[in-house]
Amino acid sequence: REDNGFIHPVTVIRTGLEPLEPLDYVILFLAVIRVRATAAPLNAAYTSEEFEFYLSDSESKLLLTPLEGNEPAQAAATKLKIQLGSASLIKTTEEEETKFAFSISLNKPESESDLNSVNSVNSVSELINEPSDVALFLHTSGTTSRPKGVPLSQHNLVSSVRNIESVYRLNESDSTVIVLPLFHVHGLIAGLLSSLGAGGAVALPSAGRFSASTFWKDMIQYNATWYTAVPTIHQIILDRHLNSPEPVYPRLRFIRSCSASLAPVILGRLEEAFGAPVLEAYAMTEATHLMSSNPLPQDGPHKAGSVGKPVGQEMAILDESGRVLENEVNGEVCIRGENVTKGYKNNVEANTAAFLFGWFHTGDIGYFDSDGYLHLVGRIKELINRGGIVFIYFWLITIN
User: Where is each AMP-dependent synthetase/ligase domain found (predicted)?
Assistant: First the structure.
């Protein structure tokens, strides 16, 4: 354990091939963060080189995979001298009663010190989780630069879960079907942990991953009241409805869209097709997901083309000198709050650039309208300065 509360991660991988594996992953993730370790979930489809980067950058000490393993991940872990292990959910039926047992097994430790470290873990009942414990370690997408490691504490997770529960009024009567990967904050925080935190129900897709052909069957079977997805999945669901409509659809409280811009025309078609408000939101890994969202109808209007109002944190539009800008003026979207990471891991340069004037700088350009709704217009790295006039590259592409 390091002084800043960072515990060397347990890297968790699921292949998504077997129907039970998502449940394996959920149980394992909750177990890891309960024992004050750090979960660093990864995409099973990574190459060996990608696994090597992520395992090395996170300084993982243990790699857990399904029983069938993951050859590229295990090869990378072996090269880095990382302990290997496997996890599985065992299903048994006795006298018409189904029981589940969860099993974790470690490969033979390479040294006596490794064995001692495994055997020295206190019983769970004696462990007390601290708010500062780093529970989750993820990386930014790295679309414009090398991915940055983002440690998220137990307190970050709880803060974000409470924000999500609050804005969507989640409670024990709610149910959802997870359609997103659980190695990103969208599915993990907004879909899984927020539902569990509110006392609601979470169903994992019967196909083991999102499938348009089984999505509505799952939603009906588990009495779903809402779901969250990225625009690509919304489009697939909408196309399926237009080409092969279901005989009946569940009555949803709302549909949530996040992680990319949702075209207003698609938002309108979703609402018309499924009879529920579509609430667009704004999120990022460094904020433990949610930053702003359109409200439920009883709490205010939802605006197509806007990502709504700040939720549970301060948000401001700043100019380059750190001055807060007035409504309708473009500037950088900046946030601060209990859900925001304390900083990137081992990256002084990135932290210096991101944490300025007492705010975390998102790198996104946007403005607040007169009703306090946030509108995003581009990224700082997409700005083009020509003779003192600033253009946004995204707009130029759209116009052409």
Answer: 24-344
Is residue 281 domain-resident? yes
**Distance between CA atoms of residues 63 and 56, nearest Å:** 12
| Total count of domains within the chain | 2
Judge if 217 and 357 occupy the same domain: yes
Specify the 3-state DSSP secondary structure of 87. Answer: strand
The count of other CB atoms within 10 Å of the CB of residue 235 is 16
Structural domain includes residue 134: no
Q: Residue 263 has which token pair?
A: 């075209």
Please give the DSSP secondary-structure letter assigned to residue 286: G
pLDDT in tens, the chain (400 residues): 344 444 456 665 543 333 336 788 898 999 999 999 999 999 999 999 999 999 999 999 999 998 889 999 999 999 999 999 988 888 888 877 888 887 888 887 555 555 454 444 557 778 899 999 999 999 997 656 789 999 999 999 999 999 999 999 999 999 999 999 999 999 999 999 999 999 999 999 988 889 999 999 999 999 999 999 999 999 999 999 999 999 999 999 999 999 999 999 999 999 999 999 999 999 999 999 999 999 999 999 999 999 999 999 999 999 999 999 999 999 999 999 999 999 999 999 999 999 999 999 999 999 999 999 999 999 997 654 444 444 444 443 333 3
> What length is written for the chain?
400
